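pinging the channel bc i need a second pair of eyes. not urgent but kinda urgent?? the chain im working w is below, pasted from the shared doc
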Amino acid sequence: MPAKKKTAAKKKVTKKKTVTKKTVAKKTVAKKKVVAKKAATKKTATKKKAAPKRRIPSNISQEFKQFEPYKIKKGEEYMNEAQVEHFHNILGSWKKELMEEVDRTVHHMQDEAANFPDPNDRASQESDFTMELRTRDRERKLIKKIDESIDNLDSGDYGYCEDCGIEIGIRRLEARPTANQCIDCKSLSEIREKSMS
């Protein structure tokens, strides 16, 4: 009898071992699947990162967004006639788009101006108009900067840093056509502003 009990106990132990081995095997397969999914998502994430979209500020016009970057030729003089014309086109189309936006806002405010009997509706409309007017005010300041840049283009001062006089660079000017400082001087002035506040 004791021998039978021992063999029965051994069978139970081996059954438990095989059951635990099966569950361990299932868990490792599940872990491998999770790892494979993570690796696949990382690959797709890196593919997405490989071709980042250029973030364009909302206050820049459609025509300005679609401009063709200037192709710099080897040995080309800085701010030659072709480059001046290129930036004239960029600044002119940007200003035109901003002016159209101003006209659109004026017409919108005239058309939408209604005397709502409900105070909540009236307050909502007023806050919308206030936001729109604030945006237009920022754009008015930007139009002033664009006009200054166009004047500098005409006088031959455009594209040179106001502080140190070196070339700002075509790519920087394409990214920010109203820039009047080189990247080094701009960085220094930002550091000074931060230390003052």
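so DSSP finds six helices and no strands in the chain. and Confidence is low (pLDDT under 50) at residues 45-63. — does that match what u expected or am i reading it wrong
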